[in-house]
Each structure stands twice: as C-alpha cells, then as structure tokens.
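Tutorial, part two.
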Amino acid sequence: MPWNRRNLIAIEELSRAEIDQVHTTAAAFKKILQRSVKKVPALRGKTIVNLFLEPSTRTRMAFEMAAKRLSADVISFDSASSSTTKGETLRDTAQNIQALKADMIVLRHSAAGSPLYLSRLLNIPVINAGDGAHEHPTQALLDTFTMTEHLGSLKGRKVVILGDILFSRVARSNIWALTKLEADVTLVGPSTLVPHWFTDLGVKVSHDLKSALADAEVVMLLRIQHERQASSHFPSLGEYTSMFGLNKTRASWLNPKAIIMHPGPINRGVEIDSDLADSDRSVILEQVSNGIAVRMAALYLCAGAHPEPVLPPA
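Running the prediction step on this input gives:
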C-alpha cells in the first residue's frame, strides 16, 4: 500500500496496516545492515536535522545512523548548542531550519504535543522522537518489530508492561501498537503509577506481580521517570524493587520461552537484576540494533520514497 503520511507523530493515529508496513520496510533494511556495505542511496541529497531538546543517547544515535545508512546528510544539535538557550522559541528554531532548506526534522522535546505543533507549522516532514509523557512512536515500532521477530503474529500473545506506566511515553505508544496488533496486554506496577483508567485503552491493569507475570510471553520493564514526576509516587526505590523488581524468582513465573525487554536506560538492580538484563532471555540489545532499521524505515517512508525498498544485489 502507498504510504500517505508526511509526518510520524503518534502510534495512536496509525492503522494496523501502516504499522505492518513500517515493520516490512524495516525488515528489508535490516537485511542491508547485515551486509558488509551497510548503506543505500535512498535519501541521497536529503538533509535531516535531529533537533533533540531533551537528553537522549540511543534514540539520537539510532536516528543519526539510520539517516547516514540511507545516505542523507545529518545535522544534530541539542538544547545546549541551540539558540533556545538565548530565548528563541521552538517555532522560530524550526522555521529557521526549514528556511535553511532542511528536508526533515526529527524532534525530541519535553513538552507533549510539540511535534504535532511543528507539523502544523512546517512544510517538511516531522518525526516525533519523544514528546514529554505523550508518545515515542519509533520506540514502540521497534519494540513490536522485535517481538514479532521472536513470536511471529502478536495476536493473543500475552505481553506485560511493568513499571512506571503513568509517566511513560514508551508505555503509551506500546499500548496503542500492541492493541492494534491484537496482543493481550497487561500493565502492572504500584497503583499510583498504574491507575485503573488505563483499562479504557483496551488493556488489563494489575497490581499483583505474580498473577500478571503468569505465562507471560513478553515482559517489558520500564524505569521510574523521576524527571516527569512532581512528587514521589512510592516510598523509596528499595520498596519498589522489593515489590516489583524483576529478579530470578519472579522471572520463573514467566512462560519458559518468554523474552525480557527494556527501552533503556536501565537502572540495574531497581527494575531488573543485572543477571537477567544480560541473560539469554534478554533482547534489550536486539531492541537497540532493530532501532536503526525501524528508524531507517520511518525516515524513508516519511521522505516520500517508494514504500518498498529497492535492494541492491547481494
């Protein structure tokens, strides 16, 4: 099917077919990344600006590598090196980038809705690399891509998302993606971080870790989002770990073939023990690697290229 979106702002607005299309395109690009020459000329001559006004390591590097693998020119800068430190507004910054003839902006910002705001102002594509506690669409796309590599169809598969759901944009994007893919999703954590109203999104909510993990085929750990919390939502990290941290005993409650995921950064010894994060069941580093292919797909599709990559001869 043709890709008709100029922007990638939220998973909520994507159809099931569009999610599948991103996955299919990412799978083709992943084959390229496994070759000795990991580059194609798909976006040669395009200039992509990574405007990261909130801290990032994995997402920023993955977008940079993805753009370069597509042969695009990449300019990356953060809040410390931008004129926002002098009082320039996001609007003026973005419009100046467009005036400099950039072809696309990848935006990370602490304010929810900022990528949507820019997409309505600019005539070039905008990709959301995380906006406040709203959404992180490419993370959910790479997470579900990784799950399908291991499980095939996600229809009816039991997926548990464990941790700080309330303040997590990763959780929100994954909820939208997984429900569209017909997975059986359970959110688990303290009641202060996993309020019951999340059931309105078509998922289950539990505060009983053992029953939630029973026979789960995927468990995704989320860190505590201290930077987005105005006050503490539990007495201490130690108490959170004692009740909801994933250790060997609790991992035994999972389906024997279950995979363990984490979008990073990991707080070892808090949401997950180090031996589990580094175990054969962990696909955390696979998520990082798949993030390049998925972001190549997002850049490629939003740039208006043909929806199916034309691969060079093997």
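Residues 50 and 76 are 5 Å apart (CA to CA). In part three we will examine how such features are distributed along the chain.
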